[in-house]
Design a protein that fits this description.
Number of strands: 10
CATH architecture: Alpha-Beta Barrel
Strand content: 15-25%
CATH class: Alpha Beta
Helix content: 25-40%
Radius of gyration: 16 Å
Number of helices: 7
CATH topology: TIM Barrel
Order of helices and strands: EHEEEHEHEHEEHEHEH
Largest sheet: 10 strands, mixed
Distance between the termini: 6 Å
Length: about 210
């Protein structure tokens, strides 16, 4: 089955994004989680925007995830440079198939690869494909304004042995139905495809 990643957790109201309740709801339903990491005064925090004292400590997130070891991969969105030394001790306890890091600047990405952390490369209409000399096992496939890519392109990356995590269009305020239908028609058992969505329960039902 296509693996479902809940964007900032499985939230029911926008104000629940990146909260403990949304994370726990996602894990209870077997979903992976996409969430945002920054630092504050030398401590790793969960925050999409600049971190403040009100933000959740990353240790709380990891402690919660460790209670649900069989959920789909967690997408670790790196929002600030230089977090490798803070995040590596947590990820060292996980098998690589439990997570991937992504969204860093290119120079910062090299630091994650050097630490042998499971690193995906971004690909969008503004970012070209880069596998960092074969050391990036997956792709975070995004479309800010439209689905600029085709199913043939996804197949090409799968044929190269890459995992493909697709950003669902509703994250950019577009309808998701056409893309979901194309993904469903493409998918066959064993393909390494993930979908990051604001509608995880709907996606689970659709793709099951």
């Amino acid at each position: 089955m296509i693996k479902i990643i809940a964007h900032r957790g499985f939230w029911l109201k926008p104000e629940e994004k990146n909260t403990l309740g949304a994370f726990e709801r996602a894990l209870q339903n077997g979903f992976g989680i996409e969430t945002d990491f920054r630092d504050l005064s030398g401590e790793l925090m969960i925050s999409h925007d600049i971190a403040t004292d009100d933000c959740m400590k990353a240790s709380i997130f990891f402690d919660l995830c460790n209670q649900y070891p069989n959920t789909d991969p967690h997408a670790i969105n790196i929002k600030a440079d230089g977090l490798q030394n803070l995040i590596a001790p947590y990820l060292a306890l996980w098998n690589p198939d439990r997570y991937f890091v992504f969204d860093m600047s290119v120079p910062d990405t090299l630091g994650y690869i050097k630490k042998n952390l499971n690193t995906f490369t971004r690909l969008s209409e503004y970012e070209s494909y880069q596998d960092f000399d074969g050391k990036a096992p997956g792709i975070w496939l995004d479309g800010f304004h439209a689905e600029w890519y085709g199913m043939e392109q996804i197949n090409q990356y799968l044929a190269l042995g890459k995992s493909v995590a697709i950003v669902s269009p509703e994250l950019h305020a577009r309808d998701h139905q056409a893309l979901w239908a194309k993904i469903k028609s493409l998918y066959t058992e064993g393909m390494s495809i993930m979908l990051c969505t604001d509608l995880p329960l709907e996606a689970k039902k659709y793709f099951s």
